[in-house]
Each structure stands twice: as structure tokens, then as C-alpha cells.
Amino acid sequence: MVASRNRHRCSRRADRQALHPASDRTSVSAHPGVAWPLLRTFGTPAARAIQRSDNMTRPNSTLKVFVSSTSEDLRDYRAVARLAILDMDYKPEMMEHFGASTEPTIQACLDRLDGCDLMVLIVAFRRGWVPSAEQGGNGKDSITALELAHARAQNIPVLAMLAADESWPIKLCEGDQAARDWIDAFRKGLNLPAEFFDYEAPTSQESRELRGFRTTLHGALVKHHEMMLRKQEEAAADTSRPDQVKAAAWVLNKGRCIPFIGPGVHGGGPLSTRALVQALPSGAAQEEQSLATAAECSEHAPGFSRATLLEFIADQLKQAQSSPPPAVYDLLARVRPPLIISAVEDLLLEERLVREGKRVLIVCHVVRSENDRYDGKIALFRGPADEDPELCLADAVDLGAYAGGYVIYKPLGSPLLRRMVEGVNTIDTVVITEADHLVLLRRLGNQSTGIPTAFSRLFQDFPLLFLGYPLDMWHYRLLVTVFGTFHKPPPLAVGQPTGMDEQVWHWLGANLIAIDANTFAQKASESLPVQS
User: pTM score > 0.70 for this model?
Assistant: First the structure.
């Protein structure tokens, strides 16, 4: 036993080095931040870790702290740990509370641990109960080791409290050599930052019971709470946290959201709203005009008409086709959402998908037609080059033939989708002037001329993922008038809004990632599985 005792003392420095590796000083920090609420519903370990992080910093939330340790040698320390946890207004979860069972089962312990936000691991120099294979263990590792492994697998933060070997009584150490070797290896292999505590003789006065241990544990709990608050503050200053991007990428890849593309995906390039406004005759002197206002003025400018306006914009779109496509398009070409909503004038995404051999259905509203014959109907284009689109009422749209393909709803149409129907009638799908927006908004309230009925269930079941969507007057009215009616799950908005836009997104109940949509797309693409 003396030899064993000396080995404990000689190994303390190695113990500390193993517990505090220079390259991994924060190896037990929780995953900070609030990721997209939708991801939490899928019950992944990462999602549960995000929820635990929220609990750590939510003022009215009661943290559940699981206490893991051997029993007989640390009975008094477990009792004092309970008091320290209660001092923090947290709720301790301990095997003493598991009920009348004479022997706690592995599953009972792990089930309780699953519901906790933090583990306090107390380790001295005894191995403790080693469950057999029949009991759910492996006949080698102690219940404490199994609980620790489960906490790590579930991303539950762990605070390690280690008994200091210099002061620990020999009578409380393992007497069996194999058990001593196991506990030595377990302590050295923890790879966790830890607090060390000395042995204290128990007293009969609760207020004086193990005062040093209680103070040390309380300090560790306070430091952990302060760390979580600090991470929350950092996260508030950086709303483009990796956990949010990964959550959105995961949901996109699983086809569990509806991307909603806005003109912000074009940044300051030739297809941006500002570039189109500047190109219009009325826009050069009024760069701050909305595209709807600039287009309205241009349509009535000398030498212009509706036809010349749309031809002019179509030419601008064609000239910009050689520009690099937005990273958002690259991202969407790698996933298969149930629906894509596109509020941009170009067809770059649609053309790319067709080039890659994918089936594409483009759904637009007919805003105008000769003699008003097809006004208000839905035009279904089987790809951007379809010269003979199907026309039907909104409540008659059938998407069955496009299961497994890409369905892209363009409520604002495109100048590149003007077509001659039956050889004599030109259909116009473009919503670009103020008058166009008013016409569309009025028709959207009618079942036969509104959003295709086939989309309504999708809007109820899947959240919207806004990518570069602006909140100028007309885009805002489209969003609130229509999608606010159908939409149930809270949306996620990705972009760099102004102060007022940011307030509006929050008022709409959206979770905001304040990052450029294409930067987001690049980061999200890195999280997707590598394509073969």
C-alpha cells in the first residue's frame, strides 16, 4: 500500500498535465448559442447541447446538474455537492433520488443524465461499481466511467473535481492492484480541466461540513456560469455563429425548409437591385429608389412602354449572365428542398439545374395577357426554355409529375419568361412596377388566382429560409400579405439588414443570421456531405 501511495504522489504532476493539455484547455466547454429552433426538434446530440447552452444563460431556467462519483468513499462529498448546487439555485440529479430500487440500473442513470444540463464529476481513488455485461456494462469500466462517456457522447458539459493524493487517506484508496491501476489510468485519461480538493474530516454541523470542498465546487460552478454568459455575449455580437450555419445546412440538406431567394444574393454585382435601378432611364439620378418605383417611372418615360421596359431589363439580365453566379445558387444546386421561392428576375439557377440534368418546374403568375384572356392564371414552365407553358387556375396546379424534381415558385416572374401562347397571345409574368405589385397583391387574395393551393401545405409544414431578402415596402407587403398567412414554423433570415430591417425581422418572429447571404452559403456548403 505504501508503494501505491508513493506512486499516487509521484504521478500528480503527470495527472495535472494529462488533465490540462495545452492544446485543449477548453475541451469541455458547451456548444454556445441559439441555433435554429427547428433543428432542436430532431433530437440530435448537437441540438440538445445548444438547448443546454440556452438553459445555462436563461434567467428563469433551472439547471439540472448530474452528480457522478463513487458512493461509499465520497458519501459526504456527494451530500455537500448537493448543497453547493442548491446554493446556485440549480437542481441536483443524484442516484440517491432515483427511488426505492436497491441497485440503480445503467439505463436509469443514463436516462437521468440525458435530462441534465451539466455533470459534476467527483473522482477520488476508488473504482466503484463495475456493471457486468448482463447489467448493461462491459465488466471493466465503472458506472462513473460509463456516465462520463455518455455525457461526452451527448455533449453535456463536465466539471471535474479530483481528490488530491497528498491529503487523501490510504483507507479510502483501492486495495486491489488491478483496481488501483484502473483508477490511475482513468484519472490520467480524463483530458478535462479540473479542480483539486483536499480531504476533510466530516463534522456534525452542516454549515461547516467539508467547507473547502464546498467553496471549491461553488467557485467552479460560478466560473462555468460566467463562461456561458460570456459566450452568450460573444454570440450576440456575432449572429453568424457556426452552430447556426451548420444547423441551417443540415436542415437544407434534409429537405426540411423552403429557401426564399431575394435580390440581395447578387450583392453589388450587375444583377443587384442598385445596378438595375441605375441602368433604368429614371434611376441614374435617384439611386435610392426602389426597383418598383424606378420601373414605374421608366415605363412612363418618353420613348418607353411596357414592352420596351421588359426588353430593356431582359437585355440587362442577359448581359450579366457571364458574371460568376451567387454562392447561394451553388448551395441550392447541391440540395433538394421541397420548394424554392425566387424573388429575383434572373434565371441563372434554373438554367444551371437544367444543365446538370435535373428536372425543373417554374411556377409564375400571369400578370397581363392580350385581351386579358389569361390574366391571373398560373403559368407552369417545364424549364426556362419551355415555349409552351401550361396555364391553369391556382387551385388546379398539380405537382405530382415533379416529385423528386425542383419546383421553383417565382411570384414576381421574370422578363425572360415572356411567351407567345397559341401563336397570338403574349403572356407577361413580370411583377416589377408599383402597379404590378398592386395587381399581384390583389389577386393573391383569391383562391383561383392566388398562391397555388398545392403550396399551402408546404408553407404550413416547413419554415422559410430567407436568403438576401430585402424588406423594402413591396417585398415586405408580399411577405406579410401572403406568406405570413400560410407560414407556421418560425423562419430564418440570412442577410445584412439595416437597423430598421433588423427590428422588422424580429417583429416577424424570424431568427436572424446577420451575415452576407453568399458568405453564409459558402460556409453552409462546407458543412454538407462531399459529393461523389
Answer: no
